[in-house]
Amino acid sequence: MDRPTNQKAWFLVLPVLLLVAFSAIIPLMTVVNYSVQDTFGNNEFFWAGTAWFEEMLHSQRFHEALARNLIFSAIILAIQIPLGIVVALSMPRKGIGVSICLVLMALPLLIPWNVVGTIWQVFGRVDIGLLGHTLEAIGIDYNYVRDPLDAWFTIILMDVWHWTSLVALLCYAGLVSIPEAYYQAARIDGASRWAVFRYIQLPKMNRVLLIAVLLRFMDSFMIYTEPFVVTGGGPGNSTTFLSIDLVKMAVGQFDLGPAAAMSIIYFLIVLLLSWIFYTVMTNYERGGQ
After folding, report:
1. Is 33 part of any domain?
2. Structural domain contains residue 107
3. CB atoms within 10 A of CB 170
């Protein structure tokens, strides 16, 4: 005979569900409402159906901003994941050096995003910035306000400085969870350094690497504050990502219908790509076991 299910636990999570409904679902429904309507002011709305979605999906402006986002996220993942692993492997496991390294790694993560953008905006200036002045002094023509490549170099370097610590700390958490007996067995068998990493350390970091990849992909794909503060989306539209373009459309141009449709498409793209990342990496992990 089956025991009756205790439903009292639902009352414990009910406040959380209500908070999520208020802070996420209700605003989302408002955006959905705007995405299928048009307005000419005076709080008068007219049914537009899927017109805004079709306009966005056929918009060259949207496609170019999406391409910039994909390229930026791919570069960020290609740099930060291997670099984070290397940093984690180089961190000490015992002694006072552990605390020092953890504090230093956590410092960039504590700085607000707008402050990070302001720091690198000044840091990259040719007249007073250390980076810009140094590059000019050694003969490199660097100006992130004028040159698109320099702008991309600046925001990529800024993001690597800001968020590689997160990947390193997650990888370090996976490394310190490995029992010492594994390393002792590897030394007895005469395993090389690469073999220890390939067959002991990397499998133990699979789950934290999955979290790191998902977090860094979502953060980099939705990046807004830092490049907006540093370049404002310029020069031209070279660093205008979807988030910046969305704000310009909604706030600057006050095109609520297209902006709402674009935000929903943006949300679905992030959700789809995150699901693909999660599925591929979990399947890889299961196949390696």
Report:
1. no
2. yes
3. 23
In a domain, 153, yes or no: yes
CATH classification of the domain holding 95? 1.10.3720.10
Print the domain residue range for 261.
Answer: 54-288
Residue-wise pLDDT for 90-142, tens only, equals 999 888 888 899 999 999 999 998 899 999 999 999 888 899 989 988 989 99
The DSSP code sequence of 188-214 is HHT--HHHHIIIIIHHHTHHHHHHHHH
Q: Which DSSP letter does residue 179 get?
A: -
Per residue in 87-116, is it b (16+ CB within 10 Å) or e — as a string? bbeebeeeeeeeeebeeebeeeeeeeeeeb
Domains identified in the chain, total number: 1
pLDDT band at 30 (very low <50, low <70, confident <90, very high): confident
For residue 213, the tally of other CB atoms under 10 A from its CB is 20
**Residue 82 to residues 79, 158, 164, 263: CA-CA distances in angstroms?**
6, 17, 10, 31
The three-state secondary structure class of 46 is strand
Q: Are 122 and 202 in contact (CB under 8 A)?
A: no
Q: What count of other Cβ atoms lies within 10 Å of the Cβ of residue 241?
A: 26
With 0-12 CB in 10 A as exposed, 13-18 as middle and 19+ as buried, what is 246?
A: buried
With H, G, I as helix, E, B as strand and everything else as coil, classify residue 47: strand
The first and second tokens of residue 66, run together, are: 């999406």
Burial class for 69, CB neighbours closer than 10 Å (0-12, 13-18, 19+): buried
Q: DSSP per residue over 23-45, as a string?
A: IIIHHHHHHHHHHTEEE-STT-E
159 within 8 A of 76, measured Cβ to Cβ: yes
Query: Does any domain span residue 98?
Result: yes
Encode pLDDT of 153-163 as tens digits.
999 999 999 99
